[in-house]
Amino acid sequence: MANSQREFWALQLDHRERRRNDDDPVSDPLLELREARFGLDVAENDGTLNHLGSTYSIDNHVIYDGLSRPGTRIVSFAPILKHGVFPLASILERLIRIGDEAFGRPVEVEFAVRLPQRPQETAEFGFLQIRPLVLSREGEELRMEDVNPDRLVCQSSKVLGNGRIRDLRDVVVVDFHRFERARSQEVAEGVAHLNAKLSESGTPYLLIGVGRWGSNDPWLGIPVEWDEISGARVIVEAGFRDFRVTPSQGSHFFQNLTAFQVGYFTVNPDAGEGFVDWQWLGAVAAVEEQGCVRHLHFDAPLVVVMNGKTSRGMIFKPETLA
């Protein structure tokens, strides 16, 4: 009984009256909402616990489904999960299966259910949100010894993510030397075009660009929407030639990075925050070019290593070309 739920949170609705002003005797109804904790007896009195509760009998130390017996009430969901008064399990099973197929990975679902209070009422299931399940790997220890910079495409001391990625053979890169901020919208269209082609074939890729990805100000970066770079497994934001880039700061951007487990590198060589080997990238023949946006493909994979504890990361060149 020490670990059984005894209380629940709910919104308490208080109706009060307020005067329009001191001279006006007419009052308006005012509805106030506040969070409050209640005992299970409140849920039993209004009928909510009928669909969720069981009873613990101290006489024989047995838990009985339902509330028909005297004893201590327990939130067990037995009427729903065992007796099917509402098909919650089958609904969630179907949603999770659809989500797994759509995202290609485990998902988590947020939902709400309104159970009937009267015989003539019907139950309602509210599907609120679905997103990929974030699996933490922060406990994994990664030893990142100093390596020869010639072996690296990119290195950064400001990295979001943790783990190793070994299956990247494609790179979409915005040519650092040809990029013009006045034409950033054209660059965004080129990136979206290549992202669509790679995503259609199920090909993950490394995305390297100049300035902020998804910036609302085209002079500070490349104004793409998330779905236009959604196929990237690792994203690199590098500084401009003439000033330092500050990392993307939109909450939705970082929520997407975390939810989809996308690695994120910020590079500012002038500030000692890593480098990108632009010369090596520029020397590789492109599969396709859209202006200064280039698609590179390698027979051997690029290996990405990220340490979530130290925020350091490295992207290794394919060993056959290193």
Task: Please explain how this structure is put together.
The structure is a single chain. It is built from 6 helices and 19 strands. It is an alpha+beta fold and 322 residues long. It has 3 domains: 1-85, no CATH class; 89-133, no CATH class; 149-316. The strands form 5 sheets. Strands 8, 9, 10, 11, 14, 15, 16, 17, 18 and 19 form a 10-stranded mixed beta sheet that branches. Strands 4-3-5 form a 3-stranded antiparallel beta sheet, with no helix packed on it. The protein is elongated and about 80 Å long.
Helices, strands, pairings?
Layout: E1 7-19, E2 27-39, H1 40-45, E3 53-57, E4 62-65, E5 72-75, H2 78-81, H3 88-103, E6 107-114, E7 124-132, E8 152-156, E9 158-160, E10 163-174, H4 184-200, E11 205-210, E12 212-213, E13 221-222, E14 232-238, H5 251-259, E15 263-267, E16 275-276, H6 278-283, E17 288-290, E18 293-307, E19 312-316
Parallel strand pairs: 10-11, 11-14, 12-13, 14-15
Antiparallel strand pairs: 1-2, 3-4, 3-5, 6-7, 8-16, 8-19, 9-15, 10-18, 17-18, 18-19
> What about the largest sheet?
10 strands, mixed
How would you state the average pLDDT, rounded? Answer: 84
Strands, total number: 19
Distance between the amino and carboxyl termini? 63 Å
Radius of gyration: 28 Å
Helix content: 10-25%
Q: Number of DSSP helices?
A: 6
% residues in beta strands: 35-45%
Element order: H for helix, E for strand: EEHEEEHHEEEEEHEEEEHEEHEEE
- Would you identify the regions where 5 or more consecutive residues have pLDDT less than 50? none
Oligomer: single chain
Number of domains: 3
Structural class: alpha+beta
Q: Give the overall silhouette.
A: elongated
